[in-house]
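[Automated response] Your request has been received and processed.

Submitted sequence:
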Amino acid sequence: MEIFYVSILFVSIAFAIVAIYLSFVLKRVANMVKTLGTSLEELERELEYMTPHLNQTLNESSKLVDDIREKVNATDSVFDSAENVGKSVISLNEVYDETSKQLSEQKLEQKMKPFVAGMTWSEVAIQLFSKWQSGTKEKNELIVQQTDIVPVNTGKEGSR
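Generated structure:
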């Protein structure tokens, strides 16, 4: 019977050890849950602070995307115009090729003379204009402070 009491003693000691071990484990779990609760409260406060700023940023980004979309849509007409210019140049080139095949070399030279002359005279005009501008700048620097205005007699006034 003594063995029976000794065995009950060992079982009770083992039970006490298991109970003490479980209490330590539960204490650690409780501390961990408490720390987790504190961390979640801090996270909640930070999210409450960040949420309005994030909403504002998203609204501004949305406005920016809409503005960019409008500006990109506005440039569509520019690219359409460039496409039309390209088509016109291609058509003009085709017409020129077809016409140049039909014209002889002399006829082509005769028809091109006015264009060549116009380009030559326009180049002369541009050169004269640039020289006139540079001359005007030099004259403007040499203008005297006081000038006398003398009326020009055209001869019409005396005949009246």
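Summary generated for your ticket: Residues 61 and 125 are 54 Å apart (CA to CA). The chain has two helices and no strands.
If you did not submit this request, please reply to this message.
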